[in-house]
Batch of 2 targets.
Target 1
Amino acid sequence: MTATDFSVSGQRVLVVGAARSGVAAAQLLASRGAVVTLTDAKQQIPQEAELRSAGIRLELGRHDTRTFTSSNLIVMSPGVPLEMREVVLARAAGVPVIGELELASRWLRGPIVAITGTKGKSTTTTLVGRMLEAAGRRVLVGGNIGLPVSAQVDASTADTVHVIEASSFQLETTDRFRPWIAALLNFSPDHLDRHPDQAAYAAAKMRIFANQRADDWAVVNADSTEAVAMTSKVRGRLVTYSVEDVAADVHVGRGFVWHRTSEGAIPLLPVAAVHLHGRHMLSNVVAATTISHLAGAGGASLAQALAGFHGLEHVMELVATKGSVRFINDSKATNIDAAAKSIESFDKVVAIIGGKYKGGEFTDLAAPLRAHGRAVVAIGEARPLVRQALIDVVPVVDADTLADAVRQAWDLAAPDGVVLLAPACSSFDMFADYADRGRQFKKEVQKLISEA
């Protein structure tokens, strides 16, 4: 099926979830002639007037089983679990269920570059967009970062490269989604509050490769043993990258990122062009370099894209320095493996850890904390778990609020340490999302410094 022969004209389509992806999907469907209903458990949503004026029916504050079972198609927002009772009943009644990413991809005209992994997706996706733009390609970046893909369909052309950050929640509801280049950056336990087990989480991630053909590309991090094992049977042309293994197709050595070819190694990028802190951030750059090189970007454009790039907000972000104490915002480190990599990037770390627990073992932070940590400040619902796992490793203190956490961490980090927000948890017990948590952290840091 091509991007032009999928039609919803006259079809009753239900969109479940009225966050940004659901709203974009509903608007897209309405523009394509569908009879659209948007349902959400919330009583009110900000875009009500706009959606109603587009002819979209709203069911708010409830989910009507009859609406689900009588639809011709259901489109899921990534935040809504497939185990939802009404969705299960609709599937039993034979109603097709797909996700917003799947829906939008059926109407995209240009090639798709899709990037997934437990951590590093946003940085890598952003860099690929910058590198391809520097190479003169027309690029649209979106998905789990920036605009939903549904909001990009009307701007899609045959020469547009769609660079998509794809989460497990988006991928688990794909059916025909086929990236020209698909990348798996790494894999570690995460989102076990949503996925029933680690196997289900892995299966969702692997959907990114499911429809690839022999002439597509599959990019895999050779430094992630889990990712390598998961991709041993992909159908696309496998390309590995590494910051540690010189046997990988794209690797780091002698001050450059190299691509091994049948005619010898080709230098792609000087490591000196990278202005990001931490080995895992270098890995993201190597991943982006590999993907962009496969998509046709040359060495000059790769380096040009990195000029002035110091990372994304809430990702290893230097907030301020007070005396010799640095404050680092890594609020996007929402799982234990990401937090471990963050801690390993500094010395004399006082780590602010905690939030809404979503799986994994906090004891996995013991080794990096022994080597790099000075103390832990525990916050949120997960405080008892954090304390129990780490109290024998470094001093652990509790904080009821983020403001209190910042002040205690500063006291513990003085005179020359690093206060690091690396929560290893989701934010939904105390904040709207990880970005809200990061902004509140920065606000409290600035307040502390001004008062001091």
Note: The chain has three domains: 12-95, 102-306, 317-451.
Target 2
Amino acid sequence: MSRKVIVTAALTGGLHTKAANPNLPEQPNEIAEDAYKSFNEGAAIAHIHARDPEGKPSADSAVYKEIHRLIRERCDIILQDTTGGGPNLSVEQRIQAVLEAEPEMASLNMGTLVRTKAKGPYRNTVFRNTTDDIEAFASALLERNIKPEMEAYSHAMFREVENLIEKGLVKAPYVINIVLGMEHQGAEPANPKTLISMIEFAPLQSIFSVCAVGRAQVPLTTLGAILGGNIRVGMEDNIYYRKGELAKSNAQLVAKSVNIIRELGFEPASPAEARQMLGLALKQINL
């Protein structure tokens, strides 16, 4: 039996707008439709950022709930909301929306970053994720049985991963997403040497996935799959299908990577299979 690879579709993100790619989904119906199409192409997880009617990152739990409802009308893909939100949101806003919307999973950033290379008004602003913030987020998620996906942008962030494990604020299997190439937020370079080294830092009883920004998305996620991990692709991290050609949808990016992993002898995990692999609580999925 071939190994199952969990594919996450990172649909929108907190930085890109339709000015960068008009196919970027921003409103609930667009996000839900892209999630469904990505599910049909093999994605097991939908990573969700909400936007307001003007396309700015939103911390309105009602918007997240509406996105969840629209997705659930179509499929059983795992719902993973962001606690990163966007640069216009406070720490308190970023976590409150997730707690009220109650997804199955939530991303959880493992350290403070500085947007040194961001363009526009958010250049050199701080993306705050202190140890106290991380512990508070993890504790709140644990109380609500929401599985955190710990986002590691650098080797140093594994210390925060270890801290959460030592304090019992996360449950095994520990889910880690290695984020590479996001230079505007201080991530380490997207290259094989860095990826292999960071995988070695993953603690026992952990499951890792790989996401990489821009042109590095496909090469690094493919290498991650070869090395035993899962993959995250989508327009949050890369708005292009190939050089000079904007992606038509998140589903197009998912389909490309699913074709590659199948050529490698693997198969994409279904949402049900991914839930079992990740140790998610069984929740009623109404379709």
Note: The two ends are 29 Å apart (CA to CA).
